[in-house]
Every structure is written in structure tokens, then in C-alpha cells.
Amino acid sequence: MSEKGTDQRFGAINAVSVNRFRRITNRKNPLGKIFLLPYTYPGGQAYMQRKFLDAMAITSRDGAPSFFITFTGNSTWHEVLHERKHEKQSLTELYDKLDKLKNDLKGTR
Questions:
Q1: What is the DSSP string of 40-106?
Q2: pLDDT 10s digits, 50-88
Q3: Where does the record place the Helitron helicase-like domain (predicted)?
Q4: Which residues, at least 6 apart from 86, have a Cβ–Cβ distance to it below 8 Å?
Q5: Packing angle between helix 45-62 and helix 3-24, nearest 10 degrees?
Q6: Half-sphere exposure of 24 (CA within 13 A, CB side)
């Protein structure tokens, strides 16, 4: 992403932050102390907005995806533990296999 796009994106966030700060520090209606989570805090507003804007930039560059696959795994699931005992493999090897499968589906190496 270009520096210009970054400046525009965070310029809007800064304008919102300044407006919030002015409303909160208004002496007629004190609300408390202001605390904005940094964009590096997962789940925070700035974090989610940045991830969304990054996804939109990728979509505008590469086009909309043809399909979307998501996978959730837990190393304590019965099936995962059973397969690990059966094949005597570490979690790292299992993750490597999943990564290879993902790359094969995407058509990349």
C-alpha cells in the first residue's frame, strides 16, 4: 500500500480521535479519561479497521476471491490427538501438511 493511502487512512482515524478527545474533555460534561487502544491490539477498533482496509486494498488489487475457505483447529481435539498418535508426528509436521494442502488448493508453492 502506498504511503499516500496510509496517510489518508490514518488521517481519518486521527480526526475521529481528536473529536472524541474534545467531547470527553469538555468541562461541562466530563466522562472520564480517554483511552484508545493501539492498532496493534487484536480486536480493537483501530486493529479491525486496519485489517478491513488492508483486505479492501488486496481485493482492489487482485479482484474479488472466487471462493473463501476457513479452517479452525484445536490441538486437543480427539481426532487430532488420534492422528498424532497413529502417525507419530509433531504438531509442526501437522501444520506443515495443512499449509501444503492450502498452497495446493491456491495453486502456489
A1: TSTTSHHHHHHHHHHHHHHHHHH---S--------TTSHHHHHHHHHHT--HHHHHHHHHHHHHHHH
A2: 999 999 998 999 888 888 778 787 878 888 788 777 666
A3: 26-91
A4: none
A5: 150
A6: 11
Is a pLDDT exceeding 60 seen at residue 5?
Answer: no
Q: Where are the domains of the chain?
A: 1-65, 69-109
Q: Position 96: which residue type?
A: D
Contact indicator for 57, 5 with CB cutoff of 8 Å: yes
> Within 13 Å and on the Cβ side, how many CA atoms surround 69?
8
Q: Which three cell numbers stand for residue 81?
A: 490427538
Residue position matching grid coordinates 495443512: 98
- Whose CA is closest to 36, among 25, 27, 26, 45? 45
Q: Is the four-CA dihedral 104, 107, 108, 109 of positive or negative sign?
A: positive
